[in-house]
Amino acid sequence: MQLNECLEKRASYRSYNSKEVSWEDLIAILNAARLSPSSGNLQNWSFIVVQKPEIKEEISKAALNQVWINQAPLVIVVCSRLENIKRHYDERGEKLYAIQNCAAAINNILLKSTDLGMASCWINAFDDNAIKRILKIPDSVVPQGIITIGYSDEKIEKMKRYELDLLIHFDEWNGKKAEGLFPLKEHRQDAMEGLSETRNKTKNFFSSLFARFKKKQQ
Q1: Nearest CA to 59 among 7, 115, 132?
Q2: Tens of pLDDT, residues 104-147
Q3: How far apart, in Å, do the first and last CA atoms of the chain sit?
Q4: Is the pTM of this model over 0.85?
């Protein structure tokens, strides 16, 4: 699957069918997580793969009784090992870098699952102490996220996103935007014409957009 297609298709699924995830796909997903960036290349993540129904049920209860979690054939709990990252980066490492690193790994899990045609969901609402007790996680390790993975028949509507020009600042907060380039929505209709026949929609969109911008500046 092309990257842009993968980014567009990724969604949070809360309904799963009975189709199992192969070991080959599971290893591919975890390897994608392993390749994530991390501060100082410390790779402070660990992954607990849960398949037993009774453990998934306990996890669902610890995750504010989100019983739909039980439907997923696989649950991956991403944990952060704190000792090494605290030693290198002190409090900032523990309270920021450790979380960011695991978030990067989680995002790779979500994207690789999508690439393999699977459904997934990132869950952060859970009782940390309960999860540690259920999975026998040591004190120096913190659960950072729960991901359900499987196959779904659920139909999900595409989530609305903020317009890009509402999110960009130039050189400083609320810095002046390039004249003639924004708002992007004024350019989108023309730029999107004919893009249904190409796989790389985003690349063509911005190539057309910036070419039009440069022409205006001449």
Answers
A1: 132
A2: 999 999 999 999 999 999 999 999 999 999 999 999 999 999 99
A3: 38
A4: no
d(CA 121, CA 45): 18
Domain ranges in the chain are 8-150, 164-217
Question: CA 100 to CA 117: how far, in whole Å?
Answer: 26
What letter would DSSP give residue 90? H
Q: What is the mean pLDDT of the chain?
A: 89
CA 188 to chain centre: 26
Structure tokens at 170: 């130039």
pLDDT, tens only, 53-66: 999 999 999 999 99
- Count CA atoms within 13 Å of residue 76 on its CB side: 24
Exposed/middle/buried for residue 65 (C-beta within 10 Å: 0-12, 13-18, 19+): exposed
Pick the CATH number of 8-150 from 2.170.8.10, 3.90.1150.10, 3.10.50.40, 3.40.109.10: 3.40.109.10
SS (H, E, C) 153-209: CCCCCCCCCCCHHHCCCCCCCCCCCCCCCCCCHHHHHHHHCCHHHCCCHHHHHHHHH
pLDDT for position 171:
87
Helix (H, G, I), strand (E, B) or coil at 35: coil
CA distance 82 to 141: 6
